[in-house]
């Protein structure tokens, strides 16, 4: 079973992603803050992490670094509105395996997750 932790404060986007990926057979858990995501990671490690950069309690890049420092092989994808070249490069330097800017097509996100899990 593929479990995905999605760290996202926009409920509409999170719900749409969860609904779509659930139809593809994935189990998606949504966390609206970095702190709730961190607590979840301390209890259980998912198959994939999806992270928004701009969160109400901090920056997703710091969270990405924290994940990468503990779990080197965990696939991480940024899902963010930050589409500046410097942000994208920074996201990869911070440990992301992929970087998807909003708005995005759900089919493309699914394909990227699928590719990372191959």
The rounded distance between the terminal residues' Cα atoms is: 14 Å
What is the overall number of helices? 5
How would you describe the shape? Answer: globular
Counting copies of identical and different chains, the oligomeric state is single chain
The secondary-structure element order is EHEHEEEHEHEH
- Measured by DSSP, the beta-strand proportion falls in 15-25%
Q: List low-confidence stretches.
A: none
Helix content: 40-55%
Largest sheet data: 5 strands, parallel
Q: Outline of this structure?
A:
This protein is of the alpha/beta class and 118 residues long. Helices cover 47% and strands 23% of the residues.
Structure description:
The chain has 118 residues and is α/β, with parallel strands linked by helices. 47% of the residues lie in helices and 23% in strands. Strands 2-1-3-6-7 form a five-stranded parallel β-sheet, with helices on both faces. Helix 1 links the parallel strand 1 and strand 2. The longest helix has 13 residues. The model has no long low-confidence stretch (mean pLDDT 97).
Give structural attributes.
118 residues; alpha/beta; 7 strands
